[in-house]
Amino acid sequence: MGNKTGQIQIKNRPESKKVNTAVLKLELTGICLYRLSGQVITKLIIIVSLIFSISAWATDFKDCGQNFYQAQAPDYLDQQILNKSVPLCFNGFATLYSGLSRTPLWSAEHLTRERLYQAEDLPREDSFHSESRLPSAMRAQLSDYKGSGYDRGHLAPNGDMANINQQYDSFSLANIIPQSPENNRYLWRNIESVTRYLTKKHGEAYVITGVVFSGKKLTQLNNRVLIPTHIFKAIYIPATGQAGVYYAPNDETQRIEIISVDELALRSNIDVFPSIEAKAKSTAMPLPVKVGDITDREKQTKPAEDEPLWYLILIEILRWFVDNFLKK
Questions:
Q1: Within its chain, how far is the Cα of 8 from the centroid?
Q2: In angstroms, what CA-CA distances link 152 with 129, 158, 251, 284, 296?
């Protein structure tokens, strides 16, 4: 409204309240601390959950217990080895994977004669791949092995796989270790062949193939993947109640030892067959080192099949023809 002089009157604004800056800073700090503490608590909950879940994984093979004798997985005498370990069930085998070494600690198989005959007819198709079920920080990657000078060596070998699903899984880097080329291509290849021979001969075998990290000076691929110092393959034959272990350094020397399950436990803190008898653990069964050590008669492991009926009938007809016409 205007006044008599024609001037516009402007109402005075109410005086602004003075702000106590100290109180404001304290309030803002409290809000930030509250929000920060909430974030920290959330992260702590996630971390604790992961720790407990990883610990639980390390003992859970309930979905693939058929790969172990009496469904009992190897037992670690030193539980620290299980830190960041993850059990993985694959088609045809089971693996305990280490997020610290980014390698498998071992892979377990139940081999049968029938499975290995099927495997003989399966052509090899390489399909190396990282394991997507693992957290990314724990995975080995294909790039870790590139130009390293080490082979990508299987623990559960491709030659044991009876179908394409098993074969594909065997090429997961969760089943692969950095292996000396000489060891992988010659010595260990022979050991795998002999293991298949023993399985065919006796009908079935339980096999644990694993690694040992011995000593304080360990080396890595790409500053990520630990290189095992030793490799082992433990075999248990239910038909004979015998067990033995191939134990070799992961180098070019071609050295190999045959040791008992108990001796392996002393060297690696792993009881690979917890449920077999004490005598089988303490005594190493005689194991051939290469297929050439097996006699020709022993190599004939495939059971003879009955001749087909048509073949037997044909033979009888030929005999009758010879007896009645050619001998007259």
A1: 88
A2: 11, 12, 14, 29, 32
Question: Do residues 81 and 269 lie in contact, with contact meaning Cβ atoms separated by under 8 Å?
Answer: yes
Over residues 91-110, the pLDDT tens digits come to: 999 999 999 999 999 999 99
Domain extent, residue 274, equals: 80-299
Helix ranges (H only) for the chain are 21-57, 113-120, 142-145, 164-170, 181-182, 188-202, 261-268, 278-282, 296-299, 309-321
CB-based burial label for 55 (10 Å; 0-12, 13-18, 19+):
middle
Q: 110, 154, 202, 230: which one is catalytic?
A: 154
Does 154 participate in catalysis according to the annotation?
A: yes
Q: Residue 196 belongs to a domain with what CATH number? A: 3.40.570.10
- The answer to whether position 315 is within a domain reads no
* 118 assigned to some structural domain: yes
Rounded to 5°, the CA angle 310-312-313 comes to: 65
Asked whether 191 and 289 are in contact (CB, 8 A), the reply is yes
Q: What is the CA radius of gyration of the chain?
A: 33
- In a domain, residue 54? The reply is no
- How confident is residue 12, by pLDDT bands cut at 50, 70 and 90? very low
Instruction: Check whether 91 is labelled as a binding-site residue.
Output: no
What pLDDT digit, counting tens, does each position of 249-267 carry? Answer: 999 999 999 999 999 999 9
67 inside domain:
no
16 alpha carbon, distance to own chain's centre? 72
pLDDT digits (tens, 9 = 90+) for 17-51: 444 444 444 344 444 434 444 444 444 443 343 34
d(CA 59, CA 304): 43
Domain count, the chain: 1
Closest CA to 283 of 237, 250, 248: 237
